[in-house]
Amino acid sequence: MSDILSLLQCLLPQINATTMRQLNQIILAMLAMSFQIEFNFRDAKQFWGLEDFMNLSQTAVTNAANLAFFMVNLSHDLLADFRQHNPDSGIIDLKAYYRGFRYVHEMLKMLPEIPEPILLTQIFAKLTSLGRIHNVSTGAESS
After folding, report:
1. Each residue's pLDDT tens digit, 47-104
2. Distance separating alpha carbons of residues 125 and 140, to the nearest angstrom
3. How far apart, in Å, are the Cα atoms of 133 and each of 1, 68, 74, 91?
4. How far apart are CA 100 and CA 124, in angstroms?
5. d(CA 105, CA 100)
6. How many CA atoms lie within 13 A of 42 on its CB side?
7. pTM of the predicted model over 0.85
8. CA-wise closest residue to 47 among 20, 70, 15, 13
9. Which has the closest alpha carbon to 75: 55, 58, 95?
10. What would the DSSP string read from start to end of 41-76?
């Protein structure tokens, strides 16, 4: 990036002010994108197993990397909606919430009849709180 800036300094006498402002906007956009790429790699490694896959073929590695980055994008989209009711939540809280939701769904399939709504709300609140870091608003308090 410093090479680009030094090149622009050399060209400064030949570039008008409008072009210089446009180039500054382009450079700032490139810097912002590079930070976003770094954050996406960090999330893919930390939360979605980019470092953990044990694949040997090129196709398997490509599929695993694409899946990890797809999950980064999906989780950021879901997290934006999730934070409307749970502003302090992060990806770990989101994963815990959906894992708990799945546990409730699987547990309900095993029961002979659906519990009362009050009990169901309490079960949902308790199971979606397992593994979370921040308190999650589910409409009921877990006991």
Report:
1. 888 877 677 788 888 888 888 899 999 999 999 999 998 888 899 999 999 999 999 9
2. 6
3. 38, 22, 20, 10
4. 7
5. 9
6. 7
7. no
8. 70
9. 95
10. HHHHHHHS-TTT----SHHHHHHHHHHHHHHHHHHH
